[in-house]
Design a protein that fits this description.
- Residues 30-113 form the TraC-like domain.
- InterPro entries: TraC-like_dom.
- This is TraC-like domain-containing protein.
- Pfam families: TraC-like.
- Helix 1 packs antiparallel against helix 5 (147-183) and helix 2 (77-89) runs antiparallel to helix 3 (93-112).
- The protein is α+β, with helices and mostly antiparallel strands.
- The longest helix is centred in the C-terminal third of the chain and has 37 residues, at 147-183.
- The protein has 2 domains: 7-73 and 118-130 and 170-222, Alpha-Beta Plaits (2-Layer Sandwich), CATH 3.30.70; 77-114.
- It is built from 7 helices and 6 strands; from the N terminus they run E-E-E-H-E-H-H-E-H-H-E-H-H.
Length: 223
């Protein structure tokens, strides 16, 4: 009897390391979280200036980028816990009752309305061309060497090549971040932990967000 394929077989990600997503086809990706600007709240002159700067930023890129908006149901469990704590510690009976009524209102409102959180993301790609020597030629010039020596040399070459590719990708990421900041947007590359949490949420759409990404809080506070 055939076993059911695991979820991992349908995910294109091979690994996440050094803040870089490594795909199964060896492609590399970094993901930048970006703050938003509500253009409806600024003057027409400021809006036109922002759009002009954004157009200049896009025209300056000589590599493809992907822009995403990730919307998820907002998790208010921690917020409700804080309200419970306030209610528990409140000694004034009138205030205690008001806190209770407010808590019930929030619960009812969330049950009847989908409260969504949005994240604005930019995906920066780099698809490396391997410079690793082909095994046949490599074996010919290293005839007589121990297998362990050959493996160590191949691993060293692979690691050096990976670091070169990572630097190329990070150069692109820095260019994107600088360009977005010139528009007046705050942009930060996600680290390993944040990437893992982000993809967990991507691949578990039936669940609400476990919690806000810490970096999202920073982005909102400084935007």
């Amino acid at each position: 009897m055939k076993s059911s394929p695991s979820t991992q077989q349908f995910i294109d990600i091979e690994n996440i390391e050094e803040d870089v997503v490594i795909l199964k086809n060896s492609g590399l990706r970094q993901i930048v979280m970006v703050s938003g600007i509500n253009l409806d709240l600024v003057s027409e002159e400021e809006r036109n200036t922002t759009l002009h700067l954004y157009q200049n930023f896009l025209n300056s890129l000589d590599f493809p980028t992907q822009f995403l908006i990730h919307s998820r149901k907002f998790n208010i469990e921690n917020y409700l816990k804080n309200i419970d704590e306030l209610e528990k510690n409140e000694t004034n009976s009138l205030l205690k009752n008001q806190i209770f009524e407010y808590k019930q209102f929030i619960k009812s409102f969330v049950e009847q309305n989908d409260i969504m959180s949005k994240m604005f993301l930019v995906v920066i790609p780099f698809n490396p061309i391997s410079l690793m020597p082909k095994s046949g030629l490599f074996s010919f010039f290293n005839f007589g060497k121990k297998k362990e020596d050959k493996t160590d040399k191949l691993n060293t070459i692979a690691e050096q090549e990976k670091q070169i590719n990572f630097r190329q990708l990070r150069g692109r990421t820095d260019q994107v971040i600088d360009g977005l900041q010139s528009v007046g947007l705050r942009a930060v590359a996600l680290n390993n932990e944040e990437l893992i949490e982000l993809f967990y949420n991507f691949y578990n759409p039936e669940n609400t967000e476990k919690e806000k990404l810490a970096i999202l809080n920073q982005t909102e506070q400084k935007s």
